[in-house]
Amino acid sequence: MFASVRARARACGVDTVRVLCVGPNVRVGEAYELGREYDAGERTRDEAALRVEFRAGLYHEETVERTADVAFAFNAGVWGYDPSDWHPTIERVVVRERTPLVLTSYSLREAESDEDAMRASLSGFENVMWEWEAEKNASCSSEVRELGFDRTEYMKKDASGESSQDVLRENFAWQCVAVN
Questions:
Q1: Would you tell me which CATH number, out of the four given (3.40.1000, 3.30.1460, 3.30.110, 3.40.630), belongs to the domain 67-180?
Q2: What is the pLDDT of residues 30-61, one digit of tens each?
Q3: CA distance to 22, 118, 130, 132, per residue, from 176 (Å)
Q4: pLDDT of residue 45
Q5: Which of 3, 9, 36, 42 would give a disulfide with 14, using CB separation of 3.0 to 4.6 Å?
Q6: Smallest Cα–Cα separation from 20: which of 3, 4, 40?
Q7: How far is CA 115 from the centre of its chain?
């Protein structure tokens, strides 16, 4: 699990990579307990150890012992929520903790909408910059995400009024915002 991340971390002298998964919809199997850190990989000569913890809740309401080196929001759909839902977490991560935030989306069109929503959320803060703007993620899922409803109503219409033909995939597009 996370072999390339663990190998790169070890090459940089890191002994342990810690992953904290937080979100209102986080679920774990029977073998795990929310709020407890687990060993997910021992340290070797070539790989850092891996520790993983799962929490159900909103990151901005959680007590976190250490600031992350990078934060990820997978398929977050920031554009589709009221700004008050995501703004406190984005502000805490990017501005207060000064942690780069990588956000993924199901399509490039959705990523662009997420970027617009995050720019609006962070507009009142100085030195906010995009390490990279919304773009296709070369490591996205190869599986098409099926929807349980007619997708033409889900996807935005383009300037001509035609429905987008975007294919939805897990982590299809990504972007990274940080404080300079």
A1: 3.30.110
A2: 999 999 999 999 999 999 999 999 999 888 99
A3: 18, 11, 6, 5
A4: 95
A5: 9
A6: 40
A7: 13
- What average pLDDT does the segment 102-130 reach? 94
Euclidean distance between CA atoms 58 and 179, whole angstroms = 21
pLDDT value for 60: 92
Residues of the chain with CATH 3.30.110: 67-180
φ, ψ (nearest 5 deg) of residue 116: -60, -45
Q: Which two tokens stand for residue 123?
A: 């507009």
pLDDT tens digits, 139-165: 887 887 776 666 565 555 555 454 445
Q: Within its chain, how far is the Cα of 133 from the centroid?
A: 14
Sign of the Cα pseudo-torsion (157, 169, 25, 121, in order): negative
pTM metric for this prediction: 0.79
